[in-house]
Design brief:
alpha+beta; four-stranded antiparallel beta sheet; two-stranded antiparallel ribbon
């Protein structure tokens, strides 16, 4: 009896230790998200969402395999967020360095050229002032000619210097425009896959409907996405989504507009005949279904495809 009681007590103690260890691990996962440095607010929010999902999986874990999957996913999330944060910080450093260098060159040029031209103009003005004290016409003519030549040279140099400054400012403006386009693209993109987001797709469809254009939607669905999401880390799933998008884009061409409609669907907007899109849908189903390797793992996806046809003249409200 004593032996059985001791065994039962030991099992209870081990269960308590296991529960406490899982709780501590879950708190550590949650705390990681709470104290994450926000190099990019959208990335940080996405990182926290992924960690919250991991915390729930961890607290619901009942087998060693589930715990190992959570541990692998946690390491993958940390590695992915670290890499993204490093890229963001490096990009900010490069922007600051470039902007600082450009402004230094700009300031140096303005200061140097301004001082040089002022000195030259002062010399010529003093020369002209000296001519007012002489009655020698030859000397006056020669002095005026020299002064006008010097002033004309200074003006020409100032014009060229200003052109250089304007060129530098134009380069900075082009760089700023590029950065704005990058930020705008990021706001209109799905973070996980890199495709356009649903809002961007709806905006394009609204424009086509307003112009009464014919178009087709080629849709692909990831049939087993939820199931394999529970079995793989977020970085592995993001890698698979990016690979699916790359294959899809390659099949449709670089100019085709492809976006992520929801968690399990991608949509391409095509201005093609429905019969051509139907043929494409069969090819897409065949070529996109399969395995997508990511680091040491392989993600197997089941893909189906379908189309929606919109003809010019149809009631936009019924689309």
């Amino acid at each position: 009896m004593i032996s059985l009681w001791k065994t039962a007590t030991d099992l209870d103690r081990l269960n308590d230790l296991q529960r406490a260890a899982i709780d501590c691990y879950a708190v550590a996962v949650a705390t990681t998200g709470q104290y994450a440095v926000e190099a990019d607010r959208a990335q940080a929010a996405e990182f926290r969402e992924h960690l919250q999902a991991l915390e729930k999986s961890l607290r619901a874990a009942t087998t060693p395999d589930t715990l190992q999957t959570v541990a692998a996913s946690y390491r993958g999330e940390l590695r992915e967020y670290r890499d993204k944060a490093h890229k963001q910080i490096d990009r900010l450093r490069q922007e600051i360095t470039a902007a600082t260098g450009a402004m230094k060159v700009f300031a140096d040029n303005v200061a140097s050229n301004g001082a040089d031209h002022e000195e030259e103009m002062q010399r010529e003005l003093k020369s002209l002032e000296g001519l007012t004290k002489t009655d020698d016409l030859t000397k006056i003519r020669g002095g005026i000619h020299a002064a006008t030549t010097g002033i004309a040279s200074s003006v020409d140099q100032m014009r060229r210097s200003n052109q250089l400054v304007v060129a530098q400012l134009q380069d900075e403006i082009r760089l700023l425009h590029h950065e704005i386009q990058v930020e705008r693209r990021a706001l209109q993109s799905d973070h996980a896959s890199g495709a356009w987001n649903r809002q961007k797709l709806e905006s394009r469809m609204t424009e086509l409907l307003r112009q009464d254009e014919s178009f087709c939607l080629l849709m692909i669905g990831l049939l087993n996405f939820k199931q394999i999401s529970r079995q793989n880390s977020h970085p592995a799933m993001e890698g698979a989504l990016k690979a699916v998008l790359a294959r899809f884009q390659q099949m449709l061409g670089k100019d085709a507009m492809i976006g992520r409609w929801d968690e399990e669907q991608f949509v391409a907007i095509l201005e093609l005949e429905p019969s051509n899109v139907m043929a494409l849908s069969r090819e897409v189903t065949r070529k996109l279904s399969g395995s997508y390797p990511f680091q040491e793992k392989t993600v197997a996806l089941e893909v189906t495809a379908g189309i929606v046809d919109r003809r010019a003249g149809d009631d936009p409200a019924k689309f």
